[in-house]
Amino acid sequence: MKTDNKTRQSQINHYKKLFDKYKGTPMAVSSESEAHKSLRFTKISQIFLNENKIQVHDVGMGLGDYYEYLKKTFPNKIIEYSGSEIVEEYFSETKTKFPESEFYLRDIAEKPGEEKYDYVILSGVFHQRRDSTIGEWENFAQNIIRNSFKMCNKGIAFNFISPFVDFYQTEVYYCNLPKLINFINDDLSRFFTLNHNYPLFEFTMFVYKEEYIKSLYKEKEFQKYFKI
Length: 228
Hints:
The chain has 7 helices and 7 strands, in the order ααβαβαββαβαββα. By secondary structure, it is an alpha/beta fold. The protein has one domain (6-225): 3-Layer(aba) Sandwich (Rossmann fold), CATH 3.40.50. The mean pLDDT is 94.
């Protein structure tokens, strides 16, 4: 994918180098280990644990590792999986590996897909800002989150590196939590969950559509709390 967008091109360049250098290992998608990757997937999958038939779209799908995790972990659930990616090498390999699924080579930061899914998942997408400024990266991330939210019927799940760390790397993005929460409330929904209770220096966020939350609380006493 050729692009004039500075932040997007920086991401493509970074992950293409990882793919070429570490193909066949977790580092090919910038994951420290299988254990790290599995824990992220476990936490992000909690958004749909109580459902048995769902559509999941994986933005920044990498090599489709999340799809393999879903098949292995939830053999009794009916999960329709698809994904989007900006790195052509990832896209081509994943499309060949999983011909039964639908994959897109596109930038969700530019515009949302026209199709809708129950849940949109973004795992590890916002960790590496590389040579983008913090402002550029936050704008890029917000565009991806905003457009991903337009593509879901129920909710989105994503993770960020926590600001509460014992290290600092200049090319990593440490989330500004108040800014993120205000963005979510102002632009997306007041219905969200933040999970910061696991070993990694990161957190997982779920943001839900108001229509979906309303469908879970049908009692008349609760209706005044919804705008729709």
